[in-house]
Design brief:
Strand 3 and strand 4 form a beta hairpin. This protein has a six-stranded antiparallel β-sheet, covered by helices on one side. It contains four helices and six strands, in the order ααββαββββα. It has one domain: TATA-Binding Protein (2-Layer Sandwich), CATH 3.30.310. By secondary structure, the chain is an alpha+beta fold. The N and C termini lie far apart (about 65 Å). This is DUF1499 domain-containing protein.
Amino acid sequence: MKKMGLWLVVGAVVLMGAYIRLAPSDPGRWHVAPVGDVDRNDRGGVLRLVETGPDGLERLDAIARTSPRTRVLTGSVEEGVITYVTRTPVIGFPDYTTVQQDGDTLRIHGRLRFGRSDFGVNRGRVDGWLALLQP
């Protein structure tokens, strides 16, 4: 009976991991222009506004594309908005970062998909990208 319980737990963990890795990312839900006028740190994400000049999105895109486990979900520099998906190394939890060029201001919204707290992961990634963006 204990072995059966153990196998049920293992099976549930495997199924949850598969769901986290394979669940589709709906651009209609995640590719939304960031809203806000001040920097903000939340339990599940971060919002940053940075004066970069009109080429900020192009420069940040080059940085984001070289980040580990990060890919473009949708959007482009030409469109003025890009949403990236970055996955954690082991389990593959997806985090979404939407970046919008608004004149000379770059608006960046990084947030988690699963759970209630990202333990500062999005803040660390976004602030790291911004540190690389500075001249």
